[in-house]
Amino acid sequence: LFDLFFVPPHLSFTVVDAQYLVTFAVMLAIGLITSQLASHIAGQSEAILAKERETNMLYQLARDLGAALTLEQVVEIAGRFLRVIAMDSAVLIDQGSQGKEALAIHGALMIDEEERALACQAYRDNAAVSAAGRLFLPFAGATRVRGVLAVARAGDSLRPLLEAVASLSGIAIERIHYAEVAQH
């Protein structure tokens, strides 16, 4: 447009002076750099907004779990949170003694014997285990592991979020456990 309207001969793309070619090249470079920077800033803005939404969701989860008075409420709150991000889940809670029989299943996700063995492995090792689209995250409290969160369709991009959910749920379960101990 600069060449067409402002460089003689007007209304023509003919260039009679080489300085206008240099001007064109500089203006083109500045335009390309500016558009690239604007695109990069827009991408960063979207990432920041996504992190803000995730942080807000985790805050609401922590608030809800802090108000939970029973184990069933913790399971329901964690399940509701995971359904919001389109994941099925179950919670396997330690019912007292260590071992396979001690993990009682709560939640909508169906767990077969092979998956139960993986959950027990995550429980014993206090480490995440994944297999066949399922992720098993231990609820590590301050003193010991309290249970395992089983999640279906867990992608690697959501793993930090799921670890935060497991951690918050583990803290809530431990708090409820110690409240029951104090009550007894």
Q: What layout of secondary structure does this protein have?
A:
Elements (H helix, E strand, L loop, with lengths): L1 H5 L11 H50 L3 H14 L4 E6 L8 E5 L5 H13 L3 E3 L2 E7 L4 E8 L6 H25 L1
Antiparallel strand pairs: 1-2, 1-5, 3-4, 4-5
Helix pairs in contact: 2-3, 2-5, 3-5
Task: Summarize the structure in words.
Helix content is 58%, strand content 16%. By secondary structure, it is an alpha+beta fold. It is elongated. Helix 2 runs antiparallel to helix 3 (71-84), helix 2 (18-67) packs parallel to helix 5 and helix 3 (71-84) runs antiparallel to helix 5. It is built from 5 helices and 5 strands, in the order H-H-H-E-E-H-E-E-E-H. It has helices at 2-6, 18-67, 71-84, 113-125, 159-183, and strands at residues 89-94, 103-107, 129-131, 134-140, 145-152.
Poorly predicted regions are none
User: Main sheet: which strands, in order across?
Assistant: 2-1-5-4-3
Structural class: alpha+beta
In what range is the share of β-strand residues? 15-25%
How confident is the prediction overall: mean pLDDT? 84
- Topology, number of strands: 5
- H/E series: HHHEEHEEEH
Quick one: overall form? elongated
Outline the biggest β-sheet: 5 strands, antiparallel
End-to-end distance, in Å? 83 Å
Query: Whole-number radius of gyration?
Result: 28 Å
**Share of helix among residues?**
55-70%
Number of helices: 5
